[in-house]
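Many introductory courses stop at the sequence. We go one step further.
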Amino acid sequence: MQVSTAEFKKGLKIVFDGQPYAIVEFQHVKPGKGGAFVRTKLKHMRLGKVIDNTFRSGEKVELVDFEERHMQFLYRDDRYHFMDLETYEQLSLSEDEVGDAREFLKEDTEVDVLYIDGVPAAVELPNFVELAIAKTDPGVRGDTAQGGTKPATLETSAVVQVPLFLNEGDVVKVDTRTGEYLARVAAAS
């Protein structure tokens, strides 16, 4: 199936140069002179590398033919192990196959695994996850929510910037697409 550049949206999976890519960002540009075009950032679905490309306005591109399976992350040893929630089949992926998703993977997290031509190609996390802060400098009396930020290592070993008032053990909500702290869900007990 083909789509026009007018139908581009974030997350759309397209075939570019014979390879599967997901659109990370796009911008329609209409210069004063010449034809309109669409500037995009495309992320390779298997390799994870990001490229920039410009499409002419109205140009048609092929959609990636993929299958999505809802799975649960079980555990990690030297590989990452998932279980299909419908068939209960287990799947083992390497660190490279999981890609950036490994930063926010916690046991029992439900994810979508994308298959292209019957082979797992990408792991898609939910947009938001709740994780506990494993390590951060202690908050100091007088710190405020409007103050600065500090780095905090989460239970999955991802590092995010959090407000100064947060402490170890606090549970925070993180946007997996940007890696940004959104809110404190629960204070440490």
